Amino acid sequence: MSLKNIITAAVFAVIGFIVMLGAGMAVTVFGTIGAFYLNVSFATILGAPIYVVLLKKVPAHGVAGIFYLVPGIVYLLMGLAPMTVVYIGAAILSELILLGEGIHDNKRIGISFIVSTLFESLHGMFFVLYYGAAGLVNQFPAMFTAELAQITANFYFNPLNVLIVIAIQIVASLLGVALAFFIDTKYFSGKRLQSALDEQVPSE
User: Fold this and answer.
1) Which one, of 118, 114, 115, lies nearest residue 39 by Cα?
2) pLDDT-based confidence at 196, cuts 50/70/90?
């Protein structure tokens, strides 16, 4: 992968991170429990077009990984190393799904986004299982009070809640991917084809 492609992927990743972070913060208007259920669903719908357009523009292995590693680095700089681990996991999953010719397969591109964002959406559950309620307060003192940590733990220790989160996330991912390929087909595919044809026609 060329330096130009790495820079392009990093720029898209930063844009995706900003858009998805903003959308993720927006769900807090639905209250604490509502935010747990919606989690990153709005962010997924808005982030999918950025991810798909990036991979269609730069069909190279490593691009999907960069899309997730950049936010992971940002969280590490913010002192949220556990989130970095989650994003590394998302990066690995996306790249595994795109192995071989998957980078050129729209279906596998869509699946890679759905699976990696589903993994990301369960970060709250991972943290509760690993740290417990008391550990959340110690690890994320700026984010959790003792009361909020216990509410979070109670939510994720309920299997039905987790299943609802997964279902909502899958639906949001499917909507996001469908929107992404619609946008790519309508606004970008033709330009890429014309650019490829122009490169094949020698100038007089």
Assistant:
1) 118
2) very low
Phi, psi (deg, nearest 5) at residue 18? -65, -45
Give CA–CA dist 120/181, Å, rounded: 21
| Three-state secondary structure of 178-203 | HHHHHHHHHHHHHHHHHHHHHHHCCC
Can you give the pTM of this predicted structure? 0.86
Q: What's the pLDDT at 192? A: 55
Question: Is the distance from CB of 102 to CB of 41 less than 8 angstroms?
Answer: no
* Nearest-angstrom CA–CA distance, 155 and 161: 6
Q: Can you list the alpha helix ranges (DSSP code H) found in 39-139? A: 41-57, 63-77, 81-97, 106-121, 123-139
Residue 13's contacts (CB-CB under 8 Å, 6 or more residues apart) are: 54, 66, 67, 68, 69, 70, 71
Contact 116, 102 (CB under 8 A): no
Report residue 46 as tokens: 């808005």
The tokens describing 177, both together, are 């991917």
Question: pLDDT tens digits for 74-99?
Answer: 999 988 899 999 999 999 999 999 99
How far is residue 157 CA from its own chain's centroid? Answer: 24
Residue pLDDT, tens place only, 90-124? 999 999 999 999 999 999 999 999 999 999 999 99
CB 19 within 8 A of CB 176: no
CA distance 156 to 122: 9
